[in-house]
Amino acid sequence: MITIKTKEQIANMKAAGEILAACHREIAKMIKPGITTQEIDKFAEKFILDHGATPEQKGYNGYQYATCASVNDVICHGFPKPEVLKDGDIVTIDMVVNLNGWLADSAWSYRVGNVSEQADTLLRVTEESLYKGIEKAVIGNRLGDIANAIQVHAESNNFSVVREFIGHGIGEVMHEEPQVLHYGPAGRGTRLKEGMVITIEPMLNTGDWRSKLDSDGWTARTKDGGLSAQYEHTIAITAEGPIILTAQ
Ligand code: MF3
Ligand code: CO
User: Domain map of the chain by residue range?
Assistant: First the structure.
C-alpha cells in the first residue's frame, strides 16, 4: 500500500530533510585527503543528535552506523572505516534522519581532492540524472517516466545504471511502497498522486551495472571494479510540482 501524506506530514518530513541537508553541507566542507569516513560518521551522528533528531540507519536491520560511506568501486552500504580518504577518491555518504518520527533520506557523492576526469564526469552525470528523474516526479506521470529519464541520461553518457538497489516510498518507515526503479520504459508503472513521498537515488557505474556483495553482508561493489556514484533526494509529489525535502 502506498501511503499518502498530508501537507502537515510533508512539512514534518521537510524539517527532517533540512537537518539532513545541513549535515551534508558540513560534510562537503570536511571532505579532503586525510579524513576518515569514521570521523565523518561520528560528525554526522553528533550533528543529527544535536539538532534533536536521530540517525535512523543506526540499528536498522543490524546496521551499526549513522551513515553509509561508499568509496570508489563501492556502490552503496559501505561501512565507515578508520582508513583515510586519499586524493582522487570519490565517496558517497548516505543517511536517514528521523525527526519526531518522520524521516528523510539523502545520499551525496563527494570528490576527495583532485579526481580523474572520468570520476568527475561520473559524479556530474549522476547528479544530473537525479534531477532529470525529479523533473518527471509530477502528478499524473508514472514511475517509469522517472526511471527512463534517468536511464537515458546515464547511458547516453556511457555510464550504466545499477539494477539491484532502488528508490522507495518513505514516511514514518524508511522503506515503504512503491519501489522506485532507475531504469526501464517510460509510460509504465504506478501513476504518481498528490501526497506520495519517494526517494530517487540513482547509482551510476563507469563500467557494467552488476554488483557483488562483500563477506560483511552489506558492502556492495561493482563486479568489474569500475567506479560508482550516487545522488539521492527525498521528493514529495504535490500540486505545485515535486518538492525536494532534502534540498541543500
Ligand atoms: N539510505 C539507504 C536507502 O536509500 C538505506 C541504507 S541501508 C541502512 O534506502 F541499513 F544503512 F540503513
Ligand atoms: Co533511500
Answer: 7-244
Residues with C-beta atoms within 5 A of ion ligand 2? 105, 199, 201
Could you tell me the distance, in angstroms and rounded to a whole number, from the CA of residue 119 to the centre of ligand 1? Answer: 23
The residues near 78 (Cβ < 8 Å, ≥ 6 apart) are 37, 68, 69, 70, 71, 92, 218, 219
CATH 3.40.50.360 given to domain 7-244 = no
Tens digit of pLDDT for each residue in 55-64? 999 999 999 9
For the stretch 192-240, pLDDT in tens is: 999 999 999 999 999 999 999 999 999 999 999 999 999 999 999 999 9
User: What SS3 class is residue 130?
Assistant: helix
Q: Chain centroid to CA 16: how far?
A: 15
**pLDDT of amino acid 24:** 99
The Cα–Cα gap between 36 and 68 comes to: 13
- Cell numbers found for residue 187: 509510460
